[in-house]
Amino acid sequence: EPSQNGPLFTELKFYMRAAKPDEIQKWTKSHKLKYLGVPRYWGSGLHERNGNSYRFMIMDRFGRDLQKMFEENAKQFSHKTVLQLGLRILEILEYVHEHEYVHGDIKAGNLLLSYKNPNQVYLVDYGLAYRYCPEGVHKVYKEDPKRCHDGTIEYTSIDAHKGVAPSRRGDLEILGYCLVHWLSGHLPWEDNLKDPNFVRDSKIRCRDNISILMDKCFPGKNKPDEIAKYMEKVKLLSYEEKPAYQHFREILLQGLKAIGQKDDGVLDFGLAENGDFQRNPVQKKRRKAAAAASEGTKAEKEDTGSPKRKKAAVSDAIASRAQKMTSPKPKKSTASRKRVQK
C-alpha cells in the first residue's frame, strides 16, 4: 500500500513489536497452546514504482474470512463453534494485551482461517491497534468528541463510542457482541447503524441490563447462560483493569459442557483444506436429486405422449439453440463498481 497509509504503518509497528515468530512460539509453548492465532511477521520494506513509494509486509498465507462463511451459513454459527471461537480469540487477546496493545476491531471479517488447517483461526488487521500501555503506563480515561465511534459501528465498545482510547475491557466487550451476533444472527441496533448515537445508547441500555440484550437476541426460553455471564463479567471491568482471562475462558467452557460438548479444537464450518468452503456432500446429492426430479416432472407435463408433438418439441429446441449460436453476443456493460470504504 502507499507508504503514507496510516493504518498500515500502525499495523507494521504492532507486528514488529509483538508478532515475531520466535516470540509467538515461545508464548505458545509456555502457555501450552496448540497454536496461537496471531499472524507471524516475517519482514517488511519499501518499494518504489513509477515515482511512488509503497510499503509492503510479509506474513503467512491464510484462507477465507469468517464473514463470508457467516453469510453462507445464513448468518448463524453453531453454538459449539461460537464458544470455541470465543476461546481462541481470548487466547489471542491475552497475548496482544500482554504486549501492550489492544486490537480494537474484532469482527468476523478480521478473522481468517489457516490456509492449511481450517480448524485454526487467526485475528488479522491491526490497523486500529492501539498501544494502551506504553512502557507499562496505562493511558488515562479521557473522552474525546473528535474520536467518537471509532471502529466497526455494530461491534465497537461503549468507550470507543465516547471517544475514549481503546482498552482491554473494550476488546472483551467487542468480542461479546460478536459472540451474540454469531450465535443469534442478530444485534438489537443493527437496523440503525447510520445513527451512531442510537447504537451507543442501545449498547449502554444493554450493558446496564444484560437481560435486555439476551431477550432481544434470544427471544425463546433457551438462552445461552454463558453469554450472559460473560457480558456481566465484562461489565464489571474498570478501564485500566487487567481481565482475568482464564475466568472468561472457564465461563465459555462451562457453556460447552452445558450443551454436551467439549473444546476439541474442531470448528464445524464444513471446510476443505486451504480454507475453502465445502458443502455437505449428502446435502449436495439431495439437492441434485431434487433438481433432477423437478426437471423430470416438468418434462412429463409438457409431453402429451404424441410422437408428432415430441418431434416438434425437439425441432423447436434445435432451432432455439441454433438461433442462440448465430445471434450476436450482447456487449458487456462498461459501468464500473464503486469500491465502498469501511
UniProtKB/TrEMBL annotation:
Biased composition (Basic residues): 329-342
Tagged with keyword Nucleus: no
Recorded superkingdom: Eukaryota
Biased amino acid composition, Basic and acidic residues: 297-306
Assigned keywords, A-Z: Kinase, Transferase
Enzyme class: transferase
Region (Disordered): 278-342
Annotated Protein kinase domain residues: 1-253
An MF annotation (GO) of this entry: protein serine/threonine kinase activity
Enzyme Commission number(s) from the entry: 2.7.11.1
Protein's name according to its UniProt entry: non-specific serine/threonine protein kinase
Organism: Sitta europaea (Eurasian nuthatch)
Lineage, uppermost ranks: Eukaryota, Metazoa, Chordata, Craniata, Vertebrata
